[in-house]
Amino acid sequence: MTSSLSRTPFSRGEPETRAWLLTPSALTQITVEDAARRIRAAPVKDELVLVDILRPGEAEAALMREQMRLHPLAVEDVMRGRQRPKLDRYPRHYFVVFYGAAINRERRRVAFRELHLFIGPHYVVVASHYQISEVQELVSHCRRFPSRMPTTGSLVHWLLDAIVDDYFPIVHDFAEKVTRLENDTIAGERSPLDHLIGVRRELILFRRVVAPERDVIGTALRRDIVALEPELLPYFQDLRDHLERLTEEIDTLRELLSTVVEARNSAVSHSLNNTIRIMTAWSIILMSMSVIAGVYGMNFTNMPEIRWRLGYAFALALMLVIGLGLFTYFRRRDWI
Q1: pTM, 2 dp
Q2: Is the CATH number of domain 1-146 3.30.460.20?
Q3: Which CATH class is domain 269-332?
């Protein structure tokens, strides 16, 4: 995906790789070398390998390519980052790109964290350049309830479902922002235009994450992961329904925000028209008075009132009468 999806650089810190062996009775941490050996070997009944690679560097890329025998193109996508949510099929595994999301309270915006999954028949390798809380929650869940994760499909579903569930508070936060902006507009308060545009941009960015992820799950339902484990079909259907609902809610918020922007622009235009109308009315009043002052300011000798004792007072009174008359006229028409 374009760079707008990952506006922050990769997180700093040393690479970290952890591996576990999951059996129906326990989750046991193992060495990375042992995990790579198990990934290369044939599946063993009731044994799954889970690997978490955080902030991968060149050594970790070589580990994935050479020891785990993951496809080089998929590993390249991991190292480059900023990929569109997708599901690719390779000879030995599937490759999934998903995005975790959380509200950054300090920067007051949504932070997206790219997540890569290598899904084999007996292993799941998770790679990310950021710390993703849902991955840690998956490990904790497997440690507490190892028997509930009998297959790689169940691991993947639990992780993706946790990520999608964390989208709903973000949508709720957006809904509150849009509601406040709508109420401010109705009350006649003008929200800064850059704030409106910023919220709209974030909604568009969020949709560019959620909509492709919906298609990823749809692809899994049609022909890929679920085809290997038919019992997971209802769970992935539920996950797709959640993403469909999120997409619809985001679209609704975008439409509502567009209405708020249009209402704000209409209010600004109306205020500008009122200002121009008031300025026009006062200009007419002052120009009418200026005409009289200009006429009697001409230096002609034979002007009838040039030597009249009451000429000055007459000119001022005439200007005042015309000014008050025009003011009353514009006042009645609500121009002033």
Answers
A1: 0.78
A2: yes
A3: mainly alpha
Distance CA 221, CA 232 (A): 9
- What DSSP assignment string belongs to 290-332? HHHHHHHTS--TT-TTTT-TTHHHHHHHHHHHHHHHHHHHHHH
- Beta strand 16-22 with 48-54: parallel, antiparallel or unpaired? antiparallel
Residue type, 161: D
Q: How far apart are CA 172 and CA 142, in angstroms?
A: 29
CA–CA distance, 115 with 302 (Å, rounded to integer): 94
Nearest to 2 by CA among 208, 250, 197: 208
- What ranges do the domains of the chain cover? 1-146, 269-332
- Each residue's pLDDT tens digit in the chain (336 positions)? 433 444 445 666 799 999 999 999 999 999 999 999 999 999 999 999 999 999 999 999 999 999 999 999 999 999 999 999 999 999 999 999 999 998 877 777 888 999 999 999 999 999 999 999 999 999 999 999 999 999 999 999 999 999 999 999 999 999 998 888 888 777 766 667 777 888 888 999 999 999 999 999 988 887 656 546 778 888 999 999 999 999 999 999 999 888 887 877 777 777 788 888 888 888 888 888 888 788 777 766 667 766 777 777 888 888 889 888 888 888 888 777
User: What's the token pair of residue 28?
Assistant: 């046991």
Distance CA 217, CA 241 (A): 10
Alpha helices in the chain, H assignment, sequence order:
32-40, 58-62, 72-80, 133-144, 152-165, 167-186, 193-222, 225-228, 233-296, 311-332
Q: Are 26 and 146 in contact (CB under 8 A)?
A: yes
Nearest to 49 by CA among 96, 74, 17: 17
SS3 category, 193: helix
Non-local CB neighbours of 15 within 8 Å, separated by 6+ positions = 53, 54, 55, 56, 57, 59, 60
